[in-house]
Design a protein that fits this description.
The chain is of the alpha/beta class. The protein has helices spanning 40-47, 87-92, 102-115, 131-143, 161-176, 192-198, 229-243, and strands spanning 2-11, 14-24, 28-33, 55-60, 63-64, 72-75, 149-153, 184-189, 201-205, 210-217. The protein has a domain at 2-71 and 183-243: Rossmann fold (3-Layer(aba) Sandwich). The structure holds adenosine-5'-diphosphate and magnesium ion (MG).
């Protein structure tokens, strides 16, 4: 469904992404993990069509991605909500590029607020919400346009661990629901446990200029028990590859 082909990227004299290639299919949850500064956020923006790579290409169902498209949505680490808009207005922004009338937007947004445990906060402003709730609004804005691919850049890393864990569980549950058409998630993280908890594949990157050190498949059944030996073995293995 998605091919990341020989991507390379520099900023000025700094060669950040060396050469990155991997593929992603329907029904996958892929984590990209690697040291700080190795270009994970940059890579995700390249996949989204927000930045042009120096070399290589991104193919979605065989077509080259060169600008943002409707089928791909983005969730940001710092939520990126507009503070002067209400929560529901922020979510409706996710539909602004589509030709949909205002009543339908409002209806879709209200349904999503219910589904995501945000009911009652429609007309409040983002600064009145906790971090976990803000990120729910950020995710709602991303999925309201019914994308097939969801790109998430460290979506849980600015939340405290208890809030992050609750939101991860909700996200897995929600993505399974037939009403949500997202069929592929690509998530950047620096948290090995989080990658093992959520993904079927972990793309492990090197220091910059980054390349794919290994693609580790995780075949444990969901929901995954973080205290099981199998889980901890996967975590240890990925740490080893990262630090080797
Ligand atoms: P990661 O998400 O893996 O931590 P990034 O993709 O954010 O890495 O950035 C890779 C490197 O590029 C970092 O060293 C960062 O400081 C640098 N960088 C990113 N964006 C810019 C920019 N717009 N201007 C200058 N340097 C940048
Ligand atoms: Mg980053």
């Amino acid at each position: 469904m998605l091919e990341v082909n020989g991507i390379s990227y520099s900023i000025g004299p700094l060669h950040i992404i060396g050469n990155i290639t991997f593929g992603a299919d329907k029904d996958e949850f892929i984590s990209i993990i690697g040291p700080s500064g190795c270009g994970k956020s940059t890579l995700l923006r390249i996949i989204a069509g927000l930045i042009k790579p120096e070399k290589g290409e991104i193919l979605y169902k065989g077509q080259k991605i060169e600008k943002p498209i409707k089928d791909l949505s983005f969730v940001f680490q710092d939520f990126a909500l507009l503070p002067w808009l209400t929560n529901i207005e922020n979510v409706k922004l996710g539909l602004s590029l589509l030709d949909i009338d205002e009543d339908t937007k409002e209806k879709k947004a209200r349904e999503l607020f219910k589904k995501m445990g945000l009911e009652g906060f429609e007309n409040a402003y983002p600064n009145m919400l906790s971090g976990g709730m803000k990120q729910r609004v950020g995710i709602a804005r991303a999925i309201i346009s019914d994308p097939t691919i969801l790109l998430m850049d460290e979506p849980f890393s600015s939340l405290d661990e208890l809030t992050a864990e609750a939101l991860r569980k909700d996200i897995i549950q929600m993505l399974k629901s037939p009403e949500i058409p997202v069929s592929l998630v690509i998530m950047v993280t620096h948290n090995v446990e989080e990658a093992v908890e959520l993904s079927n594949k972990v793309v492990i990157l090197s220091n910059r200029p980054s390349y794919v050190k290994e693609i580790k498949e995780i075949s444990l059944k969901y929901p995954r028990n973080k205290h099981s030996k199998e889980f901890m073995d996967e975590v240890d293995y990925i740490y080893k590859v990262l630090t080797d």
